[in-house]
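Page 47, continued from p. 46.
Same chain as before, 327 aa.
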Amino acid sequence: MGYAFRRVLLNLVVIWLVMTFVFVTVRVLPGDYAAAQVSERYFGGGAASGESPEDALDKARARLGLDDSLPVQYVKYVRDLMTGDLGTSFATGRSAVAEIRHALPYTIQLGAMSMLIAVLISFPVGIISAVRQDSLLDGVLRFFAIGALAAPSFWTATIGTLVVLKYGILELNIVGSPGIWEDPWSSLQLFIIPAVAGGVSSGAIVMRLLRSQLLDVLRQDYVRTALAKGLQERTVILRHAMRNALIPVLTVFGFVFATLISGSVILEAMFNIPGMGQMMIVSLRSRDVPVVQGLALVVATGVVIVNLVVDLIYLKIDPRISVEGVR
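Result:
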């Protein structure tokens, strides 16, 4: 319990540092939402009132709370954050929570499908490659893993899309962009290519690590003894070797999760999936500060929670580690 409490406190500090960095970054970028709106009104063909552009800009910044100094804005931001208020979107006038709540299910669907594909691919490939070490099959699988590591997810998704469109394998509804709760079949057809691209790219990390860890475990004396006593190879691998080999592999799942989140930004934009990745790009372009800050908070919290859960599971499955010895 003490270890978990210390980790929670440390993760809260990490989230605070991330949010502070995002707060400063979005405000030091050139331009802001008020300037873009006033520029469009006066110089983009919109109807201009009798006031000067400078006065209109001052009023717009005052209305959006951008006229205060950076320290004052930061104090207000932290105060609102402590009460659960993420602010109001400059673009839509809706709360940032409502905007994120709409986009979150799409990102969760893409992330869950990608993680499932990563596990389904990486575990069999890693195990077979280790058991059949230095064979032709091992060489082919290692080549596949290295290629998956080297190929960016957006490149894999592009190639997959070209193949699908050329042979008419799937119908990609990028206009409607349905979620699985709306139209399961159309949604799966739309999400399968980015999910495979993200899953293969992330799963390649697990493939390589699982193979190397399983090879080390298979050389241990207790594995040789179990095989010498007549136990089936499958039983020894799955019941004994895999448990110890998975301990280091488990620690990288937090990193894999972060990789999936970062990769979803490009994949969602490519396939017009209205998730948090695409929303982040649109919000950054328009300098919609509350939405950007809210999205960063959700992503940072998700990554921190996944890493915390992984650490706690690691302590549970590895009896050699004591909580008192972990700092």
